[in-house]
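Could you help me review a protein record that somebody else here produced? What it holds is a sequence and that sequence's fold in token form. I have pasted the whole thing underneath without changing anything:
=====
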Amino acid sequence: MDLEGRPSLLTLEGGLMNPTSDVREWRLVSRTDLWTGDVDRRGERLISTGLLGSIRWWSEVVIRGLGGSACDPTRGENRCPDSERKPADAGHHCAVCELFGCTDWARKFRFEVRDSEGNVLGQKITKGKHFVLRFTSLRPIRPEEWALLDLTLRLIGGYGAMGGKTVLKPSDEAARATRPHHRDYGLVEIERRPVIEPVPHTQLASYVRDDRWRRPPQDEFAWASLSNFWCVNGRYLARKTAYQSTFNKVLGRKEPKTQAQQLEAVNRPVSAWLAGRQQEGKKVFSFKDPPRTFGFVHPGLISFAQMQERLEGVWGTLRPGEFMTGQAILEELVRERGGGT
């Protein structure tokens, strides 16, 4: 503030800020530890870009689910920008990069993670920690973009997880449950959201499908879409004993545990895809405390019905509405009172 009580142009970092900057804050509480990694891969410090990268990934999932396209920034041949076009040209970058940025196009906001008193967080976020995700606009952000960001964060809070690591495999064995590779990471709950201008679902879909955006090929990661997402809250998969694992059974791995890496021949392509090949992530995630299991299907390889059948093979019959598809989740988020869509 200046001497007359007006907002200063100086930010906490000492740089210049547009006096009309818009600040939006989402207040969360961690239901598990959050892991963002560090230069030594130990995860003892909070690396805010680790959280932001996770939020961006889920934003890609949302935008594909609404019929748009998103690049994969980890793949050189796919990531934005289109080198043949200038930053101001239509088709230079995808709808996700419009907000989160890419080469030749800076992201539209400054991202900070703060504690409940407003201090910048440096240490890792542990279970039960209250914290704030603060987005400060550096350039004008459209109502559709705020709504998509809000939708993404509500998806993470209610049905997904955030951070550079979630969980490798929960365990019901007392001696193993607290080991690092059996612990849960990444579950959060949104306690308070900012005021977001309501944007109709049809308007959001029209926005992400607009011809102004680059539409990179989606073939290899088209599965990472809200259209293919599913979630079961209140249930988890875990290693039970050295010879039994409900997680392995859902993936299609043979029991006993000594044969766990041998996939059942009849379902080998499906099981290999769900488990994730080398340098490729798995497609089923499960958390014990609080219990949550979510993942993705692959049209033409495994359907929602087949995925639910695998889960019911270890849990028994699921109640109506327990197994939620991405479309049902989207409808639920849209119906939420005061929602951003």
Notes: The chain is about 25% helix and 15% strand. The longest strand covers residues 23-30.
